[in-house]
Amino acid sequence: MEHHIEILFISRFFLMFVIERFMRVFFDKRRTRFPVAALSYLAFPVGVNGVTTLQLFLGELPVILALILDVAPSVALLYVIALNYEGTWKKRLVAAISIIAIGGRDKCRVLCCIRRLHHLAFRSSAQAERYPFIL
Asked: Which residues contact 114 (CB under 8 A, 6 or more apart)?
């Protein structure tokens, strides 16, 4: 459990290649040169890791704020990546949101927030047994 942050960072860097494959599904032609595209792809793990580190330092956050801090930077950074490709702003936004929807990281975060809400709603064990959390 000691190296979970390092593993998270490394997995996010591998995620850049997955995002590039997803972008090829939505867009046919890149309109920027490779160095600009590479920097925008590199901004994704750096930005998302920065938000994750910020959340670790802030500690326990309200559920809605935690969801916003998880999803909003990812969509914004994916939109920045989509700016490298030819297309309308609507197509870029749909691509960014679709990649988030297809990816599993944010779904896991949403599930954790739902579990946290369940725990807060039913603090006593008798209530939790009466209303079990099944997903």
From this structure: 135
| pTM higher than 0.70 | no
C-alpha–C-alpha distance, residues 135 and 124, integer Å: 20
Q: Which residues, in sequence order, are CB contacts of 32 under 8 Å at separation 6+?
A: 40, 83, 84
Element (H, E) at 28: none
Range of the domain at 34: 4-99
Q: How far is CA 80 from CA 37, 42, 123, in A?
A: 10, 11, 42
Q: How many separate domains does the chain show?
A: 1
Percent of the chain with pLDDT over 70: 70
